[in-house]
Amino acid sequence: MEQGPAGGTSAAAAAAAAAAGTGGLLLSLSETEQQRYSELFSRCCPPPEAAAGGSSVGELFRASQLPPDTLHQITEVCGAKRMGYFGPAQFYIALKLIAAAQSGFPVRIESIKNELPLPRFMALKNDTEVRYGTPAELHGVKFQVTHATLEKNSYKRTDEGDKQEPKSPPMSPICSPPASPSTYQRIPLNYGYSKARSGLEQQHGAPYEVRHSTHQQDGPSSGNYGPKSALTCSTPNRSLSVEREQQDSSTHYSDDPWRITEEQRDYYINQFRSLQPDLNAFISGSVAKNFFTKSKLPIPELSHIWELSDVDCDGALTLPEFCAAFHLVVARKNGYPLPETLPETLLPEYLQAASLKPMRDCALFDSYPEPLPGSQQTRDFSRTEKSSAEEVPDKAALLQDGKKDDKQALKVSTALKTIPKEFQHLTVKTAAQESSALKARPRSRSYSSTSIEDAMKKGEEPPTPPPRPQKSHSRASSLDLNKIFQQNSQVVRSGWLPPPPPALPPRPSVSQTEQPSEVDLHPQMNRPPSQAEENSSAKKEVVLAQPPSKPARRKLRTEAQGLETPELSPTINVTSSLPASKAHLPVQKQSSKQKRAIQTAIRKNKEANAVLARLNSELQQQLKEVHKERIALETQLEQLRPVTVL
Amino acid sequence: SVVCCPPQNYPLYIRSVPTENELKFHYTVHTSLDVVDEKISAMGKALVDQRELYLGLLYPTEDYKVYGYVTNSKVKFVMVVDSSNTALRDNEIRSMFRKLHNSYTDIMCNPFYNPGDRIHSRAFDNMVNSMMMQVC
């Protein structure tokens, strides 16, 4: 056959190279061996290339039915790891080592000096059939998957053997690749996935159920490959890592299960879009709950995943949070134990990118999200059209870099989109933080778009401080009764009257029956008309200080319908004392720190209010008593006076 | 030792660091719930951040202090500390209750959490444990 002479020459060259590669060991191959090896080598790399693709090699090795660590050893020994790819010499040495291993010899260079039978590759015919199978053949999926997946996906396959039931969407990326089995031999991991992604995007509109039906077709076929794949799941990773080293791995595809690959991220983004068309908005808690419940994970685990991924604890998921949550669900489905804390790659990565460009013009990002998905898709398709291996690594790096930038920009825009949208989401988030925090929570604050908040805070600090100091805190601190008696009691009342009336009305609604004294206070306090001026000025201060937090809280209420925060609404009732009509100040420029400060101030004021109200009631009672005494004295005087006058 | 109870007065979360006398601690907490309720009904004002201080609650021999804290939705937090630990000041207790409240609202934000369920959140556990380690 024509491969023969070529094989012969290459074998000779390989022998020489093997001699060089293995430190002076001359590898002599017999005729049959040469033929066989060249055949296998050509199968592994049909185009006339010097290097065999790691994926096909890996598959071949697996077909030899050797245990995975033996295969690792073989790859190491033959020098492929060192070189990063399987050259003809390495390949032949590897084949020899396989033969040795199959004959029961240890994997050493020495063992292949002997005459050995040809390495046996089980089910090789099946492999080839499947390999060159039709695109529609779903079996091909498995082989491409074995090459083109990380460990995680290989775990997925073992799961498939167990669960026939429709599973969450993570299964579907595996289902969609059948469109391109012919590409996987030469095209390395990323591009197989790019095809998968394009196929996925074509199917994008399909709901879960459709995907599950295709997946179920996979089910029975996967049963055959399930055990085999379980055996050898680790080896494709090794050979894959070999291959990856060869390419420019600008995307850092290590075996880190907590790193979200580009494909996965795209998938998550698509899913996000299906739930919430606006990529910059939130997915509310209930929607997300339904979505993740479909993954059939137990509720406590889902609860834990939510805890991990919802870092700002607002009961809603932004795009990065959603991706992190989804990723955790995927990992869990594949048998990974859930971490106690959110892994680095799942959180700061995104938010770092988000905080990278905080000062960019918002208008720029208005147009960003629209072309972004389009550009992603076009890039995908353009990428898949390339078939030559050489161009691909360079362009892959460029495209992936560009993609990464886009993704980062997307994330930034998700963070920044809140600004053009009248700060609704940001205020919701910050308001949620505020109202849920009740006090400062710097740790959570640092996560969510701090840079943007900083920028806004600086704009906000100057206007608001002036009202606050006039809140008469100094008076609040002086609880000394004597002091108050010494001071003009009227002054005290005038200073404190304005705040209590706004605050009190909600309170009686909460505890009406228990406060007859307070009810007495109301008419008394409303009486003095002379303090109208002070009333209005103090009220204005209250208005200024309170509305900024109020509208945000109102928004919180409207937005967070999915939120389960019953205890927060009473706080909102209590604190949003002023009527809604008064507070339509622009909500746009809110900063969380300011709100925090305001809230603490409000809280202090309330406490002071409460104390002083009590004082007030006591004083009132004393006043009544004094009045009574006075009346009694006066009557006595009246009684006595006629006597003296007369 | 920390307990979190909703208005129906069954505990959602209970955790003690000194694991001996746990039953007695539970009993203490239960009785203190009554006092908390009484306090709530008595003073209707300033529901937020309400806390009371008990000294020598049950028997003079038992010297520990029971602190209570109620949220706006009548969720009660009760904390029991040894009186021997005199380093604990009021502010620290307040801040601890505040932290508890914050963590509780974080749990509430989780859509998978149904109010009334026992609290299994690991984050909450960690926070409570760290707090109690600080004290004891």
TrEMBL record, chain A:
Start and end residues of each EH domain: 33-117, 264-349
SMART domains membership: EH
GO molecular function, one term: calcium ion binding
GO terms, biological process: endocytosis; endosomal transport
Pfam families according to UniProt: EH (PF12763)
Biased composition (Basic and acidic residues): 152-166, 241-257, 380-394
Keywords: Calcium, Coiled coil, Metal-binding
Domain EF-hand: 297-332
Ranges for region Disordered: 152-180, 198-257, 367-406, 430-477, 492-574
SUPFAM superfamilies for the chain: EF-hand
Coiled coil, from the record: 598-636
Biased composition annotated in UniProt, kind: Pro residues: 167-180, 497-508
Name of the protein described by the UniProt record: REPS2 protein
Species the sequence originates in: Smithornis capensis
Encoding gene (name): Reps2
Automatic annotation (TrEMBL), chain B:
Main location: cytoplasm
The name this protein goes by in its record: Trafficking protein particle complex subunit 2-like protein
Keywords annotated in UniProt: Cytoplasm, Endoplasmic reticulum, ER-Golgi transport, Golgi apparatus, Transport
Organism: Smithornis capensis
Family matches, as SUPFAM superfamilies: SNARE-like
Listed GO CC annotations: endoplasmic reticulum; Golgi apparatus; perinuclear region of cytoplasm
Intracellular or extracellular location(s): Cytoplasm, Perinuclear region; Endoplasmic reticulum; Golgi apparatus
Keyword Methyltransferase: no
